[in-house]
Amino acid sequence: MFKQFFNPARRRNRAIADAVYARIVAAARQPAAYSDWAVPDTPLGRFEMVGLHIYLFLRRIRGEGAAADALGQELADTFFLDVDQSLRELGIGDMGIPKRMKTLARMFYGRTKSYDEALDAGDLGALTAALRRNVRPDAADWPQAAQLAAYVVQASDELAGQQLDVLLSGEVQFPQAGEGKGQ
Questions:
Q1: 80, 50 contact by CB (below 8 A)
Q2: Residue 59 in contact with residue 119, Cβ under 8 Å?
Q3: Which residues form the Ubiquinol-cytochrome c chaperone domain (predicted)?
């Protein structure tokens, strides 16, 4: 049982997942998302943006073999550990963490399903609607959702063009927010 914790391959995956996660967080924290696209700069808004970028990376490596699956699992674990830590920093006690984590996990996986359906269908309108519903549920109208949707399509396309071996080494590039088509 303890052998898995001292496994060099697991430590290597952990380091790679940490490198990918750092790039994902940097992409999710691009100022244009918050200033130009009106994504709320709140804990929930940041959760949405980090989750969106995690989703895009996981979508890219899905079905690419055991090494990609292992990295994807490490990355998901890293994300949810970070969410757990963030909840604790917000002052949520040990008793409230499991319920909130379950809710946030359900939210994340529900979003990935709707984003997958829209991207698989090439339906920019459905993607825009899903982003509007998830990122700004408080806003009756959020015209910048179309700009975020265009960014998501661009990011998905650019990730598809990145070599798997480069991604599995921890190198991932996301587009600059606000500089692509329709953004």
A1: no
A2: yes
A3: 36-174
Range of the domain at 53: 8-169
Question: Which of 143, 106, 111, 108 lies closest to 130 in space, CA to CA?
Answer: 111
Q: Count of domains in the chain?
A: 1
* Residue 179 belongs to a domain: no
* C-beta separation of 170 from 19 below 8 A: yes
DSSP class of 64:
S
Radius of gyration of the chain (CA): 17
Tokens of 66: 């055991």
Segment 101-130, tens digit of pLDDT: 787 788 888 999 999 999 999 999 999 999
Give me the pLDDT at residue 1, please.
47
Which candidate, 130, 183, 132, 152, places its Cα nearest to that of 57?
A: 152
